[in-house]
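haha ok so turns out i had the wrong file open the whole time. this is the CORRECT one, sorry everyone. sequence first:
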Amino acid sequence: MTGPHAPCCTPSGTPVALTAPAPVPAAGKRSTRGQVRLPGGGFAMGDAFGEGYRADGETPVHPVRLAPFHIDETAVTNARFAAFVKATGHVTDAERHGSSAVFHLVVDAPAADILGNAAGAPWWINVRGAHWRRPEGARSDVTGRQNHPVVHVSWNDASAYARWAGKRLPTEAEWEYAARGGLDGRRYAWGDELTPDGRWRCNIWQGRFPHINTAEDGHLTTAPVKSYRPNGFGLWNTAGNVWEWCADWFSPTYYARSAPEDPHGPDTGTARVLRGGSYLCHDSYCNRYRVAARSSNTPESSSANLGFRCANDDT
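then structure:
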């Protein structure tokens, strides 16, 4: 459950090795259901404020031009993921591993299911039986959370869903362009101030991490996918709530050699890009709810704050 890329955000690695890859679902007919069409164009990608973590590689700021594309207006919900599982019989990596990472304040499982803490991030607990249907452990379920983002999904699971849905995962450049909502060069999806007029605009941590969350934004863990306000492109929760998988392999040095037109990330790697931050981000240790912020994790990793949204070509 440890890894080189910010275990405070999402613990990486797997407690049990997988014996074989999950079956690949049949590709669905192309669909733009629930998506917004974006016109593409140019923008400045990266951190213009010098607030990023060096290991994340948020600089140099570089010009990128994108072709038009479609992207989901929200993260994929429990309800939509349940439809996928019902149609395909997909078993997530967390289910196949037999455990997944749960934040310590919300574990809901028998003592025998507590398998240990993540090295370097003891607030992450490896819980036997935690997966998308039981996000806090064996005693939990998603009743009343059908419109919350699905969690405990690996990059592999997200890719399988996207294939079935007739979609794909967004590239990192598409994700940042979409998340900015037309506000090029700004710190957040809504501007440069975290709480304009004293109002929270995203689901992140308030209080003293990792023991006291005052939940001033209304949520201890996930929020419904259409919480707060959408950005200028009509996308919801591109900051906080859950980390979102992107298609790209991760490299902290990629921005220095990124293609100027429709970049797709490095050709190879060991971890995939994550974007957007989560309900656990706090400026005392993880200021990654900024629109330029990056993180990463291994493709088979899962945790209670990992979700995704899909994209599509404009054809």
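DSSP finds four helices and 14 strands in the chain.
again sry for the mixup
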